[in-house]
Amino acid sequence: MTSSVKNETNNNWLKQVYNQFIEAANKLTLAIEDGINTAITSKYNPFYYHGALPQFYLWVLFLSGLLLFAYYVPTIDNAYLSNRLINAWTSVQYITNSLPFGGVIRGIHRYSGDAMVLFIFLHAIRVWFTDRYRQYRWIQWATGVILLLMVLFIGQTGYYLVWDERSLLLTRMTVSALDALPIIGAPLKAWFLNGDTITNLTLSNFLFIHIGLSFALLFVLWLHYVRMTRPVITPPPAVNFILVAAILLIVFLVPISSGNMANLNTQPNTYDVDWFFLFNYWLMAHMPMSVFWISMTALAVGATILPWFVKTVSPPVTPAEVVINKCTGCSLCYRDCPYQAIEMVPAPAGSRFKLLATVNVPRCSSCGICVGACAFDAIDLPQLPDATVLTQIKSLAEVK
Ligand code: HEM
Ligand code: SF4
Ligand code: SF4
To answer: Are residues 342 and 229 part of one domain?
Structure first.
């Protein structure tokens, strides 16, 4: 057997295993979804607003973060003001123990971050298992991977801000991880520390990264939504209450605290791992740095390009087609298309109408909504003509 034939056989075998796994996962997801519909009706089924859940926690994070920001002092100085030591660690202590509801706000901020990561993973798994992430949805998937990486990094910088022994250890671990990178390591380290070593500037840099990236997240979210005409971004009000109540319950059951204040002259070596945000530090500590970077990069790149390497569970997409001489340019299809796949362009010279609908082929999902929207029979799915749909509906009606 030549090596190219061998490779193909291996690829086919791998493809088959992958496809069987996705089909089983797809069936399981839909079965769970059906079960939830029966138990609490489709209106409250979280599967139908899986993207809205992380979005909801993002708003909670912005609001609670704003309140924390009002009292946070981004310095590691041991400076005294009226006999009181004022630095990042003491300001966090003040927020937690002395400010009315400060500990609750801090808890809400911390646990909403965890909840957001959890729901992002569930959201990503759901779109992956139900095959809603490829072809015309690739941009949502690729920006989703960027969003996930950003959210994880923002969360980690939040842990540096507390400036307890864990913050110091994480900062030093990040510096050694960056040091291990060839060429880009040194500039990245200087960017991260805002200089050569840990100083006051380092902490103000962490605050800047934490807040700046949170706002940058809004831009990436816009890219995430730009190809969707009506993304579901808000859960029903009853669910919002449950989500807030769940966080409050955790805040009261597991009140938030900090470790001892960081001291640059000591070398802490143990810390509590928050598995939602700090799992990569655990990995870093348990494998050679080169293996860590190679596997993380492979994971991120592999996840980003996944949509181009897998087969289709759904039928192949055949884009809608406009019947030019019937189109009146009324724009109804343009307004109804869920994937922004229709553009209204000036009608050709000599036409009675001003505009003409055109289909942007790579964005079309073949969903047929535009066909239903058009009152002039001016847009069709070539593989599914109106006559076939009518026959199918009639035969279904007869069976009933
Ligand atoms: C900050 C994190 C994220 C938020 C707030 C978010 C939010 C959303 C929302 C609201 C939707 C629309 C859902 C709908 O209308 O049914 C959506 C769609 C989508 N998201 Fe995300 N997302 C995030 C991260 C991710 C990640 C990490 C991935 C995957 C790597 C991802 C992949 C997708 C895909 C493929 C769709 C299209 C699904 C469809 O059309 O049914 N998202 N997202
Ligand atoms: S079939 Fe029509 S409505 Fe559906 S995505 Fe394509 S152009 Fe848009
Ligand atoms: S709904 Fe029909 S007539 Fe109106 S713009 Fe679309 S294709 Fe043309």
So the answer is: no
Q: DSSP letter for 81, please.
A: E
Measured in Å, residue 316 CA sits from the centre of ligand 3 at: 24
- Position in ligand 2 atom list of the atom nearest CA 363: 5
Q: Which residue has the tokens 């009146």?
A: 328
pLDDT one-digit tens code per residue, 316-337: 678 999 999 999 999 999 999 9
CA of 233 relative to ligand 1 center, distance in Å:
9
CA separation (Å) from 270 to 165, 262, 282, 287?
Answer: 9, 13, 11, 17
Q: Which has the closest alpha carbon to 58: 225, 279, 230? A: 225
Whether residues 347 and 304 share a domain: the answer is: no
- Residue 158 confidence (pLDDT): 96
Residue 87 near ligand 2, beta carbon < 6 Å: no
Kindly state whether residue 217 falls inside one of the protein's structural domains: yes
Is residue 80 domain-shared with residue 216, that is, in the same domain?
A: yes
Q: How far is the CA of 14 from the centre of ligand 1 (A)?
A: 27
| Domain total in the chain | 2
pTM to 2 decimal places: 0.89
pLDDT at 3 over 70: no
Residue 5 within a domain? no
Owning domain of residue 347: 321-399
Mean model confidence pLDDT for the chain: 91
